[in-house]
Amino acid sequence: METLLKDLRYAARMLVKHRGFTAIAVLSLALGIGVNTAIFSLVNALLVRPVPVVREQGSVMWLRAPASYPDYLDYREQAQSFDGMAAITGTSEFSLSRSDSEPELVKGEFVSANYFDVLGVGASRGRTFSEDEGRTPAPVVVIGQRLWRTRFNSDQFIVGRQISLNGLGHTVIGVAPENFTGTEIGLDRELWVPLSMQPVLNPPEATGFVGGGEVGRFDERNNHWLAVFARLKPGVAREQAGAELSAIARHVAEANTGRVDAETLRRVQLLRMSGGMDPRDQEEALPIAGIVMAVVALVLLIACANIAGLLVARAAVRRRETAIRQALGASRPRLVRQLLTESVLLGVLGGALGLLLALWVNDILVSYARATPLAALDLSLDYRVLVFTLAVSVATGFIFGLAPALQASRIDIVTALKSEDALGRASSPRSRLRSVFVAAQVTLSVVLLVGAGLFIRSLQNAHAIDPGFRVDNALTVPINLGLLRYKATDGRNFYRELLARVLAQPGVERASLVRFTPLGFSYAQGQVVAEGQAAQSGEEGTSVGFNMVGPGYLGTMGTPLVRGRDFTEADREGAPRVAVVNESLAETLWPGEDPLGKRLSFDRTKGPFLEVVGVARDVKYRSLGEREHPYVYQPVLQSYEPKMTLVVRTAGDPRAIAGAVREQIRALDPNLPVADIRTLGEQFDLSLFPARVAAWTLGGFGLLALVLAAVGIYGVVSYAVAQRTREIGVRMALGARRGDVLRLVMGEGLFVVGLGLAAGLLLALIATRVVAGFLYGVGTTDPLTFVAVPLVLGAIALAASYIPARRATRVDPMVALRYE
Amino acid sequence: MNASAQPLLRLDDVKKVFYTDEVETHALSGIHLDIRNGEYVSIAGPSGCGKSTLLSILGLLDSPSEGGYWLNGKQVSDLSLSERARIRNREVGFIFQSFNLIGDLSVYENVELPLTYRGMSSADRKKRVHDALEKVGMAHRAKHLPSQLSGGQQQRVAVARAVAGEPSIVLADEPTGNLDSTNGEAVMELMRELHRAGATICMVTHDPRYARHADRIVHLFDGRVVEEEQGQLAVKAEHELKESGFEVA
After folding, report:
1. Which of A242, A337, B117, B130 has its CA 20 to 30 A from that of A1?
2. Are A426 and A744 in contact (CB under 8 A)?
3. Greatest Cα-to-Cα distance within chain A, rounded to the nearest angstrom
């Protein structure tokens, strides 16, 4: 221990003495470790850190796919492997109103009465739900700590108080414990209402086609709308419980439908609850997390290669010290240990600074996340992040320190002790090792730069991609009439009145409504069949995306109509059912025919059939990178949806009319909460967020890699020049010209760079295949990127090696020859 | 100062050949050498005669190409690197021409360095370092860095480092080579004092003025021992002892 402290003290002294080297190394490491820590914080928050407060999370199992209510009841009653099985609806919006303020939109969940018991979560005040409250609708609510503190001012007598949810009085029966926000982190859930209240708060007559409210949700065995999780009994293994549940599911399916399909059995597969993300989503998130972690690890590796190169150069300066220590009896392991102490100390210093950097990056990530469904993302430090950072710092110290330490400790003591050995041979093992590090650095930089290039080109393409609608001068205002249980007729009237009022506002050119804003976070899919082309037996029809829109929607969005017309006020209840299809669907269902007047249906048996009145240009519905695919628009005034977004096309800045629109909504219904107003431009930007983050971060990392590579190349050539001063002097004395010397010195550096470039391009060809799915309009072998990257890197390398090489041409032969 | 009959170290037909490209250089050719406990031996010869190579082999910094080397009765010519490092640390003290102090360590830490590699306790190290620095008159400069000392002072610190571990033998490679004559004399006086106190010393020098300080001078030429003689100071001391009626072995 004492020796370790002594080594640490000496290491600290050496780092203080060589401040320039220390600063470069610590900064490089801080950047490398910082981005790794930041990304790990994100991975930790989503995939590793258990959901706060939930007891023994590892015993909680999720069913892979949603279940119907009758299935849930059967599973819950028959399965013996579980201590309890709960069902939830997922995040729902609620209108919370109090007499003294405007209604607010809060997020919460409908949950089975045993929800808190299965999670092992008790109330911090009051109680959780009773069994009775699960059976018959009971207007009770458990609120979250944050809601209690911020909106109820930490009211000590909150339990028993009445609050209004969706216009109905509810009794607060309890307050959830601190930090509990449900079964997933990041989703801003602030209250929980019994599942039995779902039909009361969202009655079938107030729900729309998309919400599935037209069917009896609690009775339909085919309506899979509940996420189900259960707690294993102590001593029961997941496999055992899974087998039991499969058997039950098989039995239930056979009893009710007479057949068992693979999908039924897949639905009841058990996924262990781990981390803060729904395990069903983790399967998609893990590969992305893997790619990002690999990229940041690459940045750190480049930093390591750079510092390793610097350490090798420094070892040359410290050869004599190493020789003295060995002459005095230091064994090689002892010397390696001492040198590693220095590099690990450097790693830890870099890690400490990196942690600060990560906190800053996390603040930025959190601020961006506020505009996404992960609004409550918590990236605060915890012991896992600290342990990760420490482990990475120490490991990094070993990685960049080991090879130079081994090399430094393998010296010829006798020669090293002689002062005249200050000059080494150009092709010494040390110089070769340094060249290897530079080549490795260039290789990794190429991979990163090619990645950055592809994402930057992809982002450029994304901006150039025509989404199929006008992004400028449009405001989007989400409206959820379901919160106030509007019936279809009232809802449609509300929409008509609202559109009329908004259109009357100065500066408003057009206005309409849409269920799913293009490039938003939600999307709906279904199957359609064309009249007269009833799908053959066994086929389900043509898969389409669909949307409910208001009158004049296509015109408001600026989506061109290829044929026919846009929806009008006349497309209302009672009028013939109509639809507008996009070009892809027209081509799929009626190739070579005029689609106008043709009819299609979402239900081949029951109908209704919708008459095609228009064909619209294809639009980017979900993401800018998507391919054209079939799509159907239906008039909302014919079918009704309680949750719509008002789209307002303006002559000038759309933000300017936000207040007026809000006023009009309030005038129509003062109890309707309005939140998340944004422009279509902001919505568009948000959809580009992943592409922009990838381009910025990879570009940033690429730039960093470029700087590090330049430093490395400069170092290796400078070192070669210092080593060959005498040789250069001799050559010049023998008549070598400046050009000869430049070629000699730069040749070595550029040869190393050339090797690194070749290896890097090869590696990039393989590595970039992984990101193919994330690119817009650019292939993974994009010629421009693959030509530009080596050119840029080559130019940088040329500059970095020219500076020291020019110094070599100024060597005075007389001075150089006297050097020894 | 009486040397015992048992040799502390013995070289038997030691040869050292260096290979550079296809050229063989015979640095040492069949060296036979015994050094007894408490003896003060000087190895002299012109530049390139193999003095430093011989000293490197004696100090286990290098190994012979052929021949045997026994230290304290143990064959040490074929040991592993780590075993050689261990013996070097315990049995050998080095004094170099260019001092070879570590610039980033204080005087105290430089002297302490070989003791830390020995795994000695902190209290023991402190005492040894203090004694060694007292011996060379540098205790008052313990906290200084080598760069804050004169050449003579630096060499005295190097001497303290060499003897702090109480090695079997002190090997000195041209210890006065980088010093002016006054400081050179002072260091030689220090070596004599060490010898008088019982230390075994083997010193390489090409300067006959300093070589004569030793009990025995071994002359090397072209990698061979060409002559051995008693040092003049030793002859003088022996003569004085005989005149005083003492019998000298």
Report:
1. B130
2. no
3. 104
Return the residue of A nearest to B53 by Cα.
A414
Tell me whether B100 touches chain A (CB under 8 Å). yes
Query: Which comes out higher in pLDDT, residue A782 or A219?
Result: A782
Question: Does residue A669 lie within any of the structural domains?
Answer: no
In 10 A of CB A561, how many CB atoms? 14
**Domain end call among A213, A245, A274:** A274
Do A460 and A479 fall within a single domain?
no
CB-nearest partner of A414 from B56, B86, B119: B56
- Please report whether residue A779 resides in a domain: yes
Cα separation, A441 vs A254, whole angstroms? 62
Domain range for A393 is 1-49+279-422
What would the two tokens of residue B118 be? 């020995």
* Chain A hits for B113, Cβ within 8 Å: 325, 328
pTM: 0.71
Say if residue A111 is in the same domain as residue A11: no
| Contact residues on chain A for B105, CB-CB shorter than 8 A | 10
Give the closest-approach CA distance of A424 to chain B in angstroms.
16
Q: How confident is the model at residue A761 (pLDDT cuts 50, 70, 90)?
A: very high
What would the 3-class secondary structure string for A108-166 be?
A: EEEECCCHHHHHCCCCCEECCCCHHHHHCCCCEEEECHHHHHHCCCCCCCCCCCEEEEC
Residue A1: closest C-alpha in chain B: B119
Amino acid type, B247: E
Judge if A97 and A240 occupy the same domain.
Answer: yes
Which pLDDT belongs to residue A696?
Answer: 82
Please give the DSSP secondary-structure letter assigned to residue A770: G
Token pair recorded at residue A267: 């639905």
Interchain CB distance below 8 Å, A332 and B85: yes
Q: Is residue A453 located within the same domain as residue A510? A: no
Cα of A333 to nearest chain B Cα, Å: 9
Same domain as A692, residue A645: no
Q: CB-CB: which of A13, A320, A332 is closest to B81?
A: A332
Given a cut of 50, whether residue A231 has pLDDT beyond it is yes
Contact B88 A332 (CB under 8 A): no
**Residue appearing with tokens 């702090």:** B164
Interface test with A, best of B116, B120, B124, B178 (most A CBs within 10 A): B116
A402: distance to nearest CA of chain B, Å? 19
**Does a structural domain hold residue A661?**
no
Secondary structure class of A193 (helix, strand, coil): strand
What CA–CA distance (Å, rounded) separates A718 from B160? 39
In contact, A389 and A349? CB cutoff 8 Å: no
Between chains, do B94 and A331 touch, taking CB under 8 Å as contact? no
Same domain, A708 and A763: yes
- Chain A positions touching B161 (Cβ under 8 A) are 328
Which residues on B lie below 8 Å from A332 (Cβ)?
81-82, 85
Let me know whether A512 and A544 are in one domain.
yes
* Contact assignment for A414 to B61 by CB distance below 8 Å: yes
Over the stretch A25-83, which tens digit does the pLDDT of each residue have? 898 889 889 989 998 998 888 888 888 888 888 899 999 888 889 999 999 999 999 99
Per-residue pLDDT of A602-652, as tens digits, reads: 877 677 889 999 999 999 888 777 788 899 999 999 888 888 999 999 999
Query: Are A86 and A218 found together in one domain?
Result: yes
Domain boundary among A212, A247, A274: A274
Q: Quick check: A693 pLDDT over 80?
A: no
Number of compact structural domains in chain A: 4
pLDDT digits (tens, 9 = 90+) for A515-527: 999 988 777 888 8
| Superfamily of segment(s) B7-243 | P-loop containing nucleotide triphosphate hydrolases (3.40.50.300)
> Which distant-in-sequence residues (6+ apart) come within 8 Å of A394 by Cβ?
A344, A347, A348
Domain boundaries, chain B: 7-243
